[in-house]
Amino acid sequence: MYVYGITRAAVTLPAGLRGLGDPPARVRTLVAGPLAAVVSAAPERLRARRRDLQAHQDVLLAVAACGPMLPSRFAVVAADEDAVRDRLRAGSDSWPAALDQVAGRVEMNLKAITVESGLADLLREDPALRQLRQEVRRRPGYDASIRLGEAVMAGLRRRAAAGAEQAITALAGLAEATQPGPEVEGCVRNISFLVAAERAAGFRTAVEGLAARLAGQVELRLTGPLPCYSFSALRAAAGV
Fold it and tell me: What are the tens digits of pLDDT across the range 126-139?
């Protein structure tokens, strides 16, 4: 069984919902007490291809539109229906509360990225960097150029991180919770916000305004609405 995630037993799936596989398998629920696992037949050869990743997320979004959803990571497979129901029973004490937390909410992910266009402002703000740049111009060399490049990148990262903190502080008031994400190359911050679904559009508008105001300091990239991956209790259920 391929496991997409956990929802409430009372949630009704959209008619005709299909998931992974070729042809796409029918998605259904397996119920145990107050909980239900959203499942389909597992494909024989499961790989992280673009279409399969998209199919996984499409199912999560479709179910989340019908009721709260605790999404599994991609490629969680159980041996059979009994194994899935056993795992549901094992989570019956904690998962109902986790479903309450994400009910009516979505995840909005923000990545803050260094921008090289801020070099002129950085030089105006940092006398030590200006002096180093002048020294390199007077006495050019490989080592000096490397040192200058490292100092410039460190300075740009500091500026971007400061801008990111401004944005996060402003956005936190529009969210119910935040969760730091893993480090991403080129990003100074990767953070997710738990936002009421009806406020998602307003949240995006706020990010767009901040992105325009901080454009010379940091690039803000917003992804969402997403299933509530970062606020799911299913990290402990990876072995479903």
Answer: 777 666 666 666 67
What pLDDT band is residue 141 in, cutting at 50, 70 and 90? low
Q: What is the 3-state secondary structure (H, E, C) of the chain?
A: CEEEEEEECCCCCCCCCECCCCCCCECEEEEECCEEEEEECCCCCCCCCHHHHHHHHHHHHHHHCCCCEEECCCCCECCCHHHHHHHHHHCCCCHHHHHHHHCCEEEEEEEEEECHHHHHHHHHHCHHHHHHHHHHHHCCCHHHHHHHHHHHHHHHHHHHHHHHHHHHHHHHCCCCEEEECCCCCCEEEEEEEEEEHHHHHHHHHHHHHHHHHCCCCEEEEEEEEECCHHHCHHHHHCCC
Q: What is the pTM of this model?
A: 0.79
Residue 39 is predicted with a pLDDT of 97
- The rounded Cα 82 to chain-centroid distance in angstroms is 31
- Amino acid identity of residue 141, one-letter, is G
Mean residue pLDDT of the chain comes to 87
Q: How far apart are CA 112 and CA 188, in angstroms?
A: 6
Prior bond of 225 cis (ω within 30°)? yes
